């Protein structure tokens, strides 16, 4: 049976990667980003500055699709400060598809006046640099950001982050109940952002606005820590 | 304002006391909010710990406790806590525990202090009772178009399309959204220019105009314009708008001045709705009290009974127009009395003049001028002491029967307890009535107490009024000097306890049990009327109306400071909720009752009702100290 690699090896890998990137990166922005020391994986959650991050994109594939907006909301275990957050619409190179417009309601004329991503990418990295990033579903934010850095600067940008969807999967899709459901061919519980939030008694927000989703992700994370972990849990335990 | 803050703002602005804040102040609150999360069963605030923020429950539920650990209150979405601690030395007064997973918005003390400069906010957060006060005062002014803000009449976001969209697409969207107007926008690049606002997604837009159903008729269909043309060509770019903070009155004047029926409403420069003239008309609808005069021109019971729909419509109009419960009670009572007078006149026409002087009197809500839309009949006859049953009773028996049957035909059901002049016991000469009252006061047993509660609200409707006044005087002078009677009445008045309040869609009992509905009359209105009656008797008040009784009680200075005000507001509010409930049922062709379902009451109203119940409960607790019972 497939065995998940241990969390310690995840931590080791990130530490190795960070050291390697700090040496290898030639782009000054990335250099600065990687020369910031990696957060000590032993630091308890209660002492960490987090940053919830969400991208809206023109589609799901980072090779062909692009970022159209991003939202950031800073928080700690104690509280979330939405008004200290940040939101930016960016102008993609390709045309917006009709479906994506319907999805996040960012229209042609809105992006027309927005700056292109390369103009604001350094600012985004700056904001990410001294926080632990929290996302819901890492397979959007991580590859899109990495792809953008690769496109503009020819170098990679990866870092440990916390994925509230992965946490949800960890707790909701395990144990005998889940296995029984699986054996019976039943639908597993949804771990999408809104469905996950409902399980913690969190309110429904209008989805698909990057900053609203970032705030929603931050709230979900607080709820997950309250239910499954503790303020003393080491941050490294949750790295993805 | 950014989208995520609007999520917060929209929620706050629906709940008291934030719903009364000026836009600017509200934005200030929202811009400073911090969000916290507590899982079920965790302690949120401990007694005595320093407190730095007001907490607003965005989702979930909490319980607050007395010093002794007893349940003080259960709060849910839209409620606030921590205000008392913030007002007093910044220490937590009532410990708070999450009973469900709870998301809180924290409003820092600096902002809270600033909010307290605002009168209605300060009233709200200070001791209980004042929150009710501000709502009741507000509803007195509610109908005033000068003070009502435009945003109150806005119920939905405006439909907006780019000017490049085709006429047909715009019309399709209007149809799909069931609206009769659409706002036209175009991208803008300069923020600080006229009509430019920031959209949800941060883009800049300029408001270019509006297209209405009429425009589509006159400029498109009638003019034979092709519907694939851009909708922008239908607007000449001139657009009259109004700020959401402006008064409804101002909106109406603007419409009249410019011969238009629709006004886009802006919050700062962002469109937040479209106000239609009909929204204002609907809001302003006047109550018609010409009804009472109409009653006297009817010449038969059947003609009178045909007025029922009109009476009910008048009731609904009064409620919808935002009248207060006292006004509605007065209006409905005067309709009820007029109806009864006319029935007596008609009966006299038929039976001939009465052989001896008499007075028809009423009891209960009609005597107190507190009638709602339905009531059963509580009436009695006081006859002159020259009454001789052998010669006179046949006449009065017939009179009583005709009136009672007539009332029934007009929607006032027969009294199930038999409190009607048709009942011989309640068709007596003055001397006998005096003996009754004398006995009830001197030697109150349960049956007599029940009678006292009913008959000691009494008023003349027709005939020789001095007969009833004589009885009123007698009660006023005798009851107050009889502590045993007052003690018994007081005990009686504490029998029916109001519930703790509402929690979610349940009625919360003081012992934590929950019910689906509450009988607002039995558990709210009757208890508070009873409490007021006891005090009124104790101070020798001859007033029948509860509000007037409260004035007499105030003058007599027998209650702790502020208590009369609280009772006044609680009474007003409970009565109003009942009336609104009944108006709702009438409007929806449902049977009229007193069963309030919490889910049908909006949040603000629930907060107030909860507080009103607490006022009644406290007033009941006070009674045994003021009027000790001796068996």
Automatic annotation (TrEMBL), chain A:
SUPFAM superfamilies: Ribonuclease H-like. Gene3D superfamilies: Ribonuclease H-like superfamily/Ribonuclease H (3.30.420.10). CDD domains: DEDDh. InterPro entries: Ribonucl_H (IPR013520), RNaseH-like_sf (IPR012337), RNaseH_sf (IPR036397). It is an enzyme of class 2 (transferase). GO terms for cellular component: cytosol. One of its GO terms (molecular function) is 3'-5' exonuclease activity. Its EC number is 2.7.7.7. Signal peptide: none annotated. Keywords: Exonuclease, Hydrolase, Nuclease, Nucleotidyltransferase, Transferase. NCBIfam families: PRK09146.1. This is DNA polymerase III epsilon subunit. It comes from Methylophaga nitratireducenticrescens.
TrEMBL record, chain B:
Keywords: CBS domain. The keyword Ubl conjugation does not apply. Pfam families: CBS, cNMP_binding, DUF294, DUF294_C. GO terms for molecular function: [protein-PII] uridylyltransferase activity. It comes from the Bacteria. Signal peptide: none annotated. CDD domains: CAP_ED (cd00038), NT_GlnE_GlnD_like (cd05401). The keyword DNA repair does not apply. InterPro entries: CBS_dom (IPR000644), CBS_dom_sf (IPR046342), cNMP-bd_dom (IPR000595), cNMP-bd_dom_sf (IPR018490), Diverse_CBS-Domain (IPR051257), DUF294_put_nucleoTrafse_sb-bd (IPR018821), GlnD_Uridyltrans_N (IPR005105), RmlC-like_jellyroll (IPR014710). This is Signal-transduction protein.
């Amino acid at each position: 049976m497939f065995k998940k690699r241990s969390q310690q090896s995840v931590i080791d890998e990130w530490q190795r990667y960070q050291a390697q990137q700090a040496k290898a990166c030639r782009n000054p922005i990335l250099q600065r980003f990687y020369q910031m020391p990696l957060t000590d994986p032993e630091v308890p959650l209660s002492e960490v500055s987090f940053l919830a991050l969400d991208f809206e994109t023109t589609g799901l594939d980072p090779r062909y699709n692009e970022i159209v907006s991003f939202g950031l909301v800073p928080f700690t275990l104690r509280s979330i400060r939405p008004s200290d957050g940040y939101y930016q619409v960016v102008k993609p190179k390709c045309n917006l598809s009709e479906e994506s417009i319907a999805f996040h309601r960012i229209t042609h004329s809105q992006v027309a006046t927005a700056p292109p991503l390369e103009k604001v990418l350094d600012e985004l990295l700056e904001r990410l640099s001294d926080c632990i990033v929290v996302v819901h579903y890492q397979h959007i934010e991580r590859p899109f950001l990495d792809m953008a850095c690769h496109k503009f600067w020819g170098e990679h940008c990866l870092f440990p982050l916390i994925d509230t969807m992965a946490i949800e999967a960890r707790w909701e899709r395990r144990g005998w109940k889940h296995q029984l459901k699986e054996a019976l061919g039943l639908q597993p519980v949804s771990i999408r952002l809104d469905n996950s939030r409902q399980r913690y008694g969190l309110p429904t927000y209008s989805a698909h606005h990057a900053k609203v989703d970032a705030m929603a992700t931050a709230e979900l994370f607080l709820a997950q820590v309250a239910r499954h972990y503790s303020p003393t849990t080491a941050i490294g335990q949750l790295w993805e | 304002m950014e989208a995520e803050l609007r999520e917060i703002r929209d929620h706050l602005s629906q709940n008291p006391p934030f719903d009364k804040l000026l836009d600017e102040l509200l934005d200030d609150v929202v811009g400073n909010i911090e969000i916290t999360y507590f899982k079920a069963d965790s302690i949120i605030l401990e007694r005595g710990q320093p407190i730095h923020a007001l907490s607003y429950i965005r989702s979930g539920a909490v319980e607050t406790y007395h010093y002794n650990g007893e349940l003080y209150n259960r709060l849910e979405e839209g409620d606030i806590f921590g205000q008392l601690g913030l007002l007093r030395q910044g220490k937590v007064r009532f410990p708070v525990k999450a009973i469900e997973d709870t998301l809180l918005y924290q409003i820092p003390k600096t902002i809270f202090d600033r909010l307290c400069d605002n009168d209605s906010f300060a009233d709200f957060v200070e001791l209980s009772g004042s929150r009710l006060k501000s709502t009741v005062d507000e509803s007195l002014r509610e109908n005033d178009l000068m003070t009502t803000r435009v945003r109150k009449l806005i119920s939905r976001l405006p439909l907006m399309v780019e000017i490049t969209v085709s006429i047909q697409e715009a019309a399709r969207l209007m149809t799909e959204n069931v609206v009769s107007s659409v706002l036209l926008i175009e991208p803008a690049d300069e923020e600080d220019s006229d009509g430019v606002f920031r959209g949800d997604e941060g883009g800049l837009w300029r408001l270019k105009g509006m297209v209405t159903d009429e425009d589509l008729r006159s400029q498109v269909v009638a003019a034979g314009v092709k519907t694939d043309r851009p909708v922008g060509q239908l607007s000449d770019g001139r657009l009259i708008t109004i700020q959401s903070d402006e008064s409804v009155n101002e909106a109406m004047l603007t419409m009249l001045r410019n011969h238009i029926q629709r006004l886009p409403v802006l919050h700062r420069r962002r469109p937040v709705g479209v106000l239609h003239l009909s929204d204002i008309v609907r809001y302003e609808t006047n109550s018609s009290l010409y009804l009472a005069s109409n009653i006297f021109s009817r010449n038969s019971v059947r003609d009178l009974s045909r007025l029922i729909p009109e009476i009910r419509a008048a009731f609904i109009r009064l409620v919808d127009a935002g009248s207060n419960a006292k006004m509605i009670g007065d209006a409905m009572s005067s309709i009820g009395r007029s109806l009864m007078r006319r029935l007596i006149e008609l009966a006299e026409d038929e039976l001939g003049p009465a052989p001896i002087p008499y007075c028809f009197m009423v009891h209960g809500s009609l005597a107190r001028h507190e009638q709602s839309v339905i009531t059963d009949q509580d009436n009695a006859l006081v006859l002159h002491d020259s009454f001789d049953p052998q010669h006179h009773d046949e006449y009065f028996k017939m009179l009583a029967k005709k009136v009672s049957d007539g009332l029934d035909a007009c929607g006032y059901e027969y009294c199930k307890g038999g409190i009607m002049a048709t009942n011989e016991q309640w068709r007596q000469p003055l001397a006998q009535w005096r003996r009754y009252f004398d006995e009830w006061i001197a030697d109150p047993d349960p049956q007599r107490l029940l009678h006292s509660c009913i008959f000691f609200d009494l008023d003349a409707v027709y005939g020789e009024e001095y007969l009833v006044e004589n009885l009123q005087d007698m009660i006023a002078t005798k009851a107050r000097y009889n502590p045993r009677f007052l003690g018994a009445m007081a005990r009686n008045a504490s029998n029916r306890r109001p519930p703790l309040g509402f929690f979610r869609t349940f009625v919360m009992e003081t012992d934590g049990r929950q019910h689906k509905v509450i009988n607002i009359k039995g558990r709210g209105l009757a208890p508070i009327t009873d409490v007021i009656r006891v005090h009124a008797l104790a101070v020798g008040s001859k007033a029948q109306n509860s509000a007037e009784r409260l004035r007499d009680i105030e003058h007599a200075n027998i209650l702790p400071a502020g208590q009369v005000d609280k009772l006044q507001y609680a009474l007003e509010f409970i009565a109003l909720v009942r009336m609104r409930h009944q108006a709702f049922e009438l409007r929806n062709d449902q049977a009229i009752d007193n069963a309030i379902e919490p889910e049908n009451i909006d949040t603000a109203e629930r907060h107030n009702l909860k507080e009103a119940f607490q006022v009644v409960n406290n007033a009941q607790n006070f009674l045994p100290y003021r009027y000790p019972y001796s068996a």
